[in-house]
Amino acid sequence: MNATAVISAEIQVSDIPIFEALFKRMKAKKIIIKSKKDDTEMTQEAFFDKIDKASKQKGKPITAKEFEAKYL
């Protein structure tokens, strides 16, 4: 009996190669990989550039507590 099944799972991006290799070894007919990009992620350099740019703007000064609450 050659029954087939469809598997759907949400896994860490770092685990994709493991499962992809497993499915290829099992000769899976169709492998679909979809990953979502996290829009909130940024590099450390971009983060500090954003802070520097904001600190150079004129306007309402920010306290250390407000800074920590917003950025850390």
What does this structure look like?
The protein is mostly helical. The protein has a domain at 38-71. The protein is 43% helix and 0% strand. The chain is built from three helices and no strands. The model has no long low-confidence stretch (mean pLDDT 83).
In short:
The protein has about 70 residues and is an all-alpha fold. The protein has helices at about 15-25, 45-55, 65-70.
Q: List unreliable stretches of 5+ residues.
A: none
**What helical percentage do the residues reach?**
40-55%
Major sheet: none
Estimate what percentage of residues fall within beta strands: under 5%
Structural shape: rod-shaped
Number of helices: 3
Whole-number radius of gyration?
22 Å
Tell me how many strands there are.
0
Average pLDDT figure: 83
Secondary-structure-based class equals mainly alpha
Distance between the termini: 56 Å
Query: What's the SSE pattern?
Result: HHH
